Amino acid sequence: MNEIVQTKNLHKIFCKGNICVANKIDLSINEGEIFTILGKSGSGKTTFLRMIAGLETPDDGEIFIDNKLVFSKNTNLEPKQREVAVVFQNYALLPHLTIASNITFGSDASKEILEEVLEKTKLKGQENKFPHELSGGQQQRVALARAIINKPKILLLDEPLSNVDTELRTHLRIELKEMIKAFNITALFITHDKEDAFYLSDRIAIMHEGNILQIGTAKEIYHHPNDLYCANFLGKMTEISKNSYIRPEHIEICENGEFEATIKDIIFYGSFYEIKISSKEKELFVHSFDDHLQIGQKIKYKLNGDILKF
Ligand SMILES: Nc1ncnc2c1ncn2[C@@H]1O[C@H](COP(=O)(O)OP(=O)(O)OP(=O)(O)O)[C@@H](O)[C@H]1O
Q: Which residues form the ABC transporter domain (predicted)?
């Protein structure tokens, strides 16, 4: 499989504060995949994306884009020469330009290509409007259309969903995935949001303090986290014995359960309940669909899935 982005030993320290934001990162992004860097605020995601784009200079290492060296000790190609496109958090649309002019701004794309992009981003008929006349979803599509029109080797998405409310966010993330797949483009997406990462990504890298801790599909990293940090970051767990943990969906409340407990709290999440139970002075979280459980009720439970050991 062709690797569209490859970093080797990519290293960056911000002198101010002496923060290592990229610790010798080796990473490959395959052609056609949506690859996500998932990490808490301050983990180094944006700096990594900016180094790929040529907007930040690494201290050491190499970057290849479509097998072409774009950064090394002796090479540092300008952003334009790297054939990448960035979609920023706020979309950065130009308010005084029409949608068509926003999309073609700085591009020498032909009318035919503009037509094709308008068609694929479902913006046909909107081209003479101004950004403020469009919905949040349409504005995202304009930002995407502008990024895609020059056929970049890779689309870099810097938390494009982070400034929108939950309802719109769910809608935008569906659209975003559809659009990226419609153009069959390779994308690097960065986010702190696990749900966005799980929904959008073919593969995910978990980043923490400038280190990539694990790379895999959503299922792989959720079910087989490399360490306790990754496991906790991806979902709730309870320690059931020394260094052994279980996720709430892997505990089952049932009459023939092995262990006894008392229900301490019930939280309704719409599609399921999260039940806090207390057993032998241990508190565990359980996911359940049972409508009839009550606080104070004595129940039995069993462990019904992977035990994670670290
Ligand atoms: N130009 C800079 N000079 C000094 N420190 C910086 C600079 N840019 C970022 N940092 C610091 O580097 C660390 C990583 O920042 P970065 O923006 O890459 O993280 P992030 O994971 O993208 O976080 P966020 O989601 O909050 O943007 C942070 O501690 C940040 O304060």
A: 5-234
